[in-house]
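Fig. S4 source data, part A: sequence.
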Amino acid sequence: MELRPDMTIGERLKVARQFVDLTQEVLAERAGVHLDTIRKLEQGQRQSARISTVNALAHALGIETTALLLGAAPQEEREDPQLLALRRALIPVGDFLPSTDHGEEDTPPDVAALRESVSDAWGSYHAGDFATLGRTVPELLTEARVAVRENTNGAAQEANAVLVKAAQLGAHVLARSRMEDLALHGLDRARRAAEQSGDPLLGSMLSNSVSWIMMRTGRLDDSEHVATRTADTIEPRFRSSTPAHVSVYGGLLLSAAAAAGRHRRYDTARDLLRVAQAAAAMVGDSTDRWTSVFGPTSVAMQAVQLETAAGEWGTALELAGRVPMTGKTPDSWKSWFLMDVAHAQSQTYRDADAVETLRTVRRIAPEWLRQSGLAKAVIRETLGRPTQPRGTISLAKFVGVPH
């Protein structure tokens, strides 16, 4: 079964449905979605759907949500040399070989400098600079392992912390390349380093990444469960907890809310966001690249995403008008938020606004726009209108949508 990225979501839906020998009527019943939605998607009359609808269809078809929403690249396209290097660095062969004396060539790296390099690499991730990450993350993982092996006492704890954050970053890059199972395996292996780091928040940060990856693959119950259970275990005392502690806690609440929203449990998601909003008011928007992205702005952005998932387009756009585009918010979050806004604008036939919003994303973080299945769906939707706003064709060329 081929679910290629260059196909429309409707074409992928039809291929997957026919592969498991289901009629449109049976699929609609199993997924709990309207038959008309399936028909319009497969006939190309609609180019997008709510994330919750896509997830329900994928679950009924027995495929991953990302495969239906974004497509799955052929295996040969996945064997990128940089990704292969990241695979080797995340799970090195040396871990499976007998213990040996590594000799004097393994001079311990400067842990403080290595920490700064990993922090910079997270900055590259949020900027969407995946070309740089493909070169640097394998090297950072290798150096972090050397630092863990060659240092003792307090330096060893700090080296383990650096290794955790490098492994977490590697997992995010792999997940963005649709290698979610390998990414989860890498995160699981990073837990031992988290335990030896002396930082009780690192394990919770890994759990947040696990929750996000599970959500990407349609494991919505598991995603929400991981995030809420972990948040419960680290619930802060707001008067005495550090901003980092509150940020990690709040980040978990946002992940839980996102999973609940995709599962069409909108009231639960809104309740979680209310708790997150109270936590965000205590700490403000964080600029710390070492912990979770969290603050009033990220909570407000997540609220917009929730209302787009619910199909409450007017509410989403009303909330979006109140979101400040501050410099403290990473470009990644700005881009994801603006693509949700463009989706809502497209669904309310504000095509010129949608195109202009996507052009803003292109200026802020062009690689995030290229990667976004949602942006491509909005562009396809706009191309299907009787008339297209100025700039539509340029965007289509940029992201690779046929026009």
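Fig. S4 source data, part B ends here. Residues 155 and 309 are 45 Å apart (CA to CA).
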